[in-house]
Amino acid sequence: MKLRLYGDSIRLRLNPAEVEEFARSGSVHATTHFTADCSFLYRLKADAAIEQPSATLTACELCITVPRAEVVDWAATDRVAISTDQEWRQGQALSILIEKDFECLDAAKHQAGEVLYPHPLALKTTQP
Predict the structure, then answer these.
(1) What is the pLDDT of residues 7-25, one digit of tens each?
(2) Cα separation of 53 and 11, whole Å?
(3) Which of the chain's ends, N or C, has fewer CB atoms near its CB within 10 Å?
(4) Does domain 2-123 have CATH number 2.40.10?
């Protein structure tokens, strides 16, 4: 799972195995280790009791919770993303985007051994 933070936005990209695990178990996570005793955990969690995605941050963990029905729909269809804006102050919001991770169109940028979703533009044939 890839995490991108930029300003007031969070973007997570999941490969097919992670999407499947998230739909099956209701949770998927990754950890970034800074030192032997300091790490940062980022987690996606499904919850049937909520109506829209939300994010929380504690000292060493970012947790994004997504409605369970939305996770199941996303995983089982061609739907690319789950997104929402979480207002943190009137007129200001944190943008949350969870996407299926597509292969790069530029093969040189693709990491060896990485299994991703086929890019929709790569599947189209060029018409003369």
Answers:
(1) 999 999 999 999 999 999 9
(2) 13
(3) C
(4) no
